[in-house]
Queue: 3 jobs
Job 1
Amino acid sequence: MDHVFMMVTKDKYELPVAVADTRNELGKILGVSPVTIANSITRARNNGQKSQYMRVDFTDSDMD
């Protein structure tokens, strides 16, 4: 399974603002620490909330 990391808009549409293969790449694009991205995703998941960052998982069959 592969995945990408994204920063999305804070509205109901969650449109992608930036997309990268790793947290490190996304952090460099946005000028934030990869740890900040990871913590935001984890905190939102644990609290049942949404984060402006997300990890999107997909399988090879999704690419066909």
Job 2
Amino acid sequence: MSKRLIGAAGLGLAFALGGAGAAFAADPLKVGVLATLEGTYTVLGEDGVRGFNVALKKFGGMAGGREVEVVIGATDASPDSAIRAARKVVEQDKVDIVIGPLSGSEGIAIKDYAKTQPQVTFINGISGAQETTYVDPAPNFFRFNMDGAQWSSGIGEYIYNEKGYRTIATIGEDYSFIYTQVFGLVLEFCGLGGEVTERHWVPLGTKDFASIIAALPEDVDAIYLGLGGGDAVNFLNQYLQAGGDAALVGGTIMVDQTVLSSKGPAKKALIGTPASGPQADSWDDPKWQAFVKAYQDAFPPDKRFPSPSLLATGYYNATTAAFTVLDDIGGDLGDGHVKFRAGLAALELDAPNGMIRLDENRQAVGTNFVTEVVEDADGNLVNQLVKIIPNVRQTLGVDPAVFKTIGAPGREVPECRKY
């Protein structure tokens, strides 16, 4: 059995329901799911598929009156792996719909690939690079999650006005999603008068952070950590061993359950860390609490996190959007998916983490949450709600004409100034 099948089979439910569809339905709906089940972000991809499975269970393994047959495409967060997986599920397995991918640069690659496969509808899993939908979007690619810059909405204002930080340095993984996260942070923080003195970048999958830790400045108010998965855990362990004690600001995936639930004591260094993103673990909204319970009930405690990660939420929302519209149109994918795509574009998704609608580029406009990491009564680390920011658009409140002049997120873009 290949590594891909071992990783996917371990997630269980998707294959159980998908197999049932293949066995008993004359005309199953074939859905390809792309997720990072190899490499640094494996733990993220596994929870993304859990979120897909929660939605699949909610709909009883059916969509538009058709049994759902699931084909998993494993990736490793690289664009090449995403394209290979997409080609497999689209060109060999002949899926009708693709849900995914997870990582930022994968999303850009899949957006471009989607243009070559007009017969298939692509619904983003949770990848968050800005360019995926903002630059030359694909007409058959839909994203029901905000991008990384939208997920940074509110954190710059919070650390400037509430924490009193005036100077920060950043460290982040050297690829498009973290560029997008830092883009949103810099735009807001520097627009208020803050200064980002240094930006450090490390390759995805870095094992040894010694040289970066040694280079971090001491004359700043805080350090922003744009790391995730294994990189986040490795950095925290090594930073504490080196005696690091700076105030921290968390990137969205730095303080996600994929890190907060990791083994070892280093994660406790994140207690008190402010961050922002598309959900807050402690939110008392009934829809959020119902989703958390559905996630918890779907898997044994040792096969999930105490609370769904943002990856689970993203894949759940993408799948719910797809299956809701398919139910509304009776599963009609004729005439080039015209009814399906029109339904997706017009959908207002009453998601567990707030209302989501799509803009003219089929990009989510949604709700963001400013949070701080706390330890709950059960000893789990969670993101406690501080502030809710509704209706966050991709242009982040900047005049659209001005926003276009800033340029694509990069190592030094945007400049640290007011736009």
Job 3
Amino acid sequence: MRPIHFIALYSLLISLIAISLTVYDKYAAKKRPRHRTPERTLLLIGALGGAAAMYLTMRLIRHKTLHNKFMIGLPLMIAGQILVGGVAAIVFIMK
């Protein structure tokens, strides 16, 4: 498996996990409050690469949009992930 295929597959999977957890937490907030997804878990999934998918999902379903740790933190994570990806791409190209 080429590195680009691995990265694409990882990005797809982490994005699907981020979307699923966000949608489930929105559902749990209304129907099952004792079964909420901890904010630490949501932020960890964002930091592991799901920040963009999670941020867009939160905006679309209007979930946690008043929480600065998500509405500021996730875009900062996205910027960091783009920066790391750009540096990694440059290093890979320079080989």
